[in-house]
Predict the structure.
Amino acid sequence: MKHSRLKTGSVVINILIATVISLIVNFSYFVLFILSTTSAQSRRPAPPDSSPWFMAIEVIFYILFAFVLLTIFTHRIDRLQLGKKNFPLRLLLAVIITLCVYFFIPYVGWHGELHFVMTDRRIFNPMVVLKCSFTLVVVALYGKIYELLGQQQKFMIEYERLKTENLRSRYDVLINQMNPHFFFNSLNSLSMLVRENKNEDALNYIDRLSDTFRYIIQSGQSSMTTLREEITFLDSYKYLLEIRYAGKLFIDVDIPTEYMDMTLPSLTLQPLVENAVKHNIITKSMPLHVTITVSGNNLLVSNPYQPKIDASTNGTGIGLKNIASRYKLLTDKDISVIDDHKTFSVKLPLSPARN
């Protein structure tokens, strides 16, 4: 649709430019006509009454002539392969058309009579040559500018396409970094249930694990999701953690209903909860409480600061970097990390609800 509107707009613009060119090349006639009809003491006799019509014919002819040349420079002719990069070929065609049209160009004589070059005694008419040359040069310059603008537009479209593909590739890489680690932990928990002969719990665990991975696969196809969908997914993931940390891990969600339709990058809450589990002590004497609330238009995920003693569990911080990178790619917003050594919090900006 955009391409069609552009072509229609080019036709209108070409008509306007052709009209301006015709008025410029025939400006001397207008001045002469006005002076000869308004000055009673003019040395040159006034032209006959028919001369205004002859001048109109000449003006219209140059409009058509300039429009044809503009069409050659600004529209593609597939059969002649006149693409945007074939400016010399289009210029050659414009010169040939100008030479052919030259013999049929009408012009008004000094006494208001209408002439044609091919019917005159002399083929070379300096004034007509000047007008044709001026028209050709102006149109050629405009055609070159049009070509450069078209190439710039093409480069911008290509740049945006490559940028989008690059962002999508980076997003897929970030998602794929998270999935293997989550899958590994889930299998460990499932193997624990099997070893303890908790068959019923193992079956429920498999069902929740299936729901969890179904959401992960679907989220890989959709970059943004609603807070409601993310919380629903978190409920399944919460069950998997409860199996691993029975009575030692609590995830409290307190979000007003009006915020549930707001959006955020998919698979954001799960790595934050997993990050809290990975880097903090979780025992019966020191249970871990993760709270998820809303502050303004931001989602706040926080947990008490109770780091593990073993430095080897500190990790590389790839989970948090993953979330920050995806947020920047998808929303052009930054997350905020608040660590006062008492509470560790991550503030996630929420986007307006999807239409």
Summary: The chain has two domains: 2-160, 198-349. Residues 198-349 form a domain with the Heat Shock Protein 90 fold (CATH 3.30.565.10).
